[in-house]
Amino acid sequence: MEPPDKNADEQRKRAEERKECGNRMYQKQKFSAAIEAYTEAITFCPTWTVPLVNRALCHKKKRDWAAVIMDSEQALRMDPDLFKAHFFWGVALLETDRCEEAIRRLEKALQLAHDREAAAEDIWRQLARAKYKQWCVDSTERQERRDKMRANALNDLALRANHLRQTGVDEATINAQIKEQEGLLEEVLKEASARDIKGEIPSAFTCNLTMEPFRDPMTTPAGLSYERSYLQEHFNKVGHFDPVTRQPLNPKQCLLNKGLRQATQEYLNEHAWAW
Known about the structure:
By secondary structure, this protein is mainly alpha-helical. It contains 10 helices and 3 strands. Helices cover 67% and strands 3% of the residues. It has a 3-stranded antiparallel β-sheet. Strand 1 and strand 2 form a beta hairpin. The chain is flat, with a radius of gyration of 28 Å.
């Protein structure tokens, strides 16, 4: 058995001291000083992911997205299950308009942070931003394709009308045929654009407190459903009663509604504007 590496222990001790210094600087919002301290900690202990992830957070505060990605990627090479690294990377991708990549990172972060309620709530909000932003991009592209399709189709109809005139068809007949074809064209384009029209989210998929789509719905014995984090906050800060009916309510009586969660997720996937 090899003797303990005293030098390694000393390096780790010095790394922890610099990490704690970085934490103090972060609390004071001195992010550049915190980055310097975390960098020293990493120098002393290159395989320790904590100061690396903390440094990524500081870069996030400074909106240095390239540095956020670099630190997050390095941390994940050492530990692929660091939900904070996935989260920070996802936010950096979102802020640099790489929405599809951001969604994948944020979904992974949410999966890994399932038992950390506060963190999961933050991740969920950024994921919602990413999915809505991606919908806006996709919706704009689809509208441009529809506009091009309409222009091409109307041009074809104009050519057809000229051809009919040249073959001696009377103007009334031509106008009737063209009008019918234009009506069919607009009907098809209207149906194709339905997925890009914002609507009202069904109340069945929204929290009775926030009116926002469910992530983790909890259902009471009265049949009312609330987002878990907000219901827990109500119990902690206000009292053990139903926020709507005002009737006494024991938190243990509330059950996670997995069916409603799945139904809400399916609705959001089909109506991305609702994110």
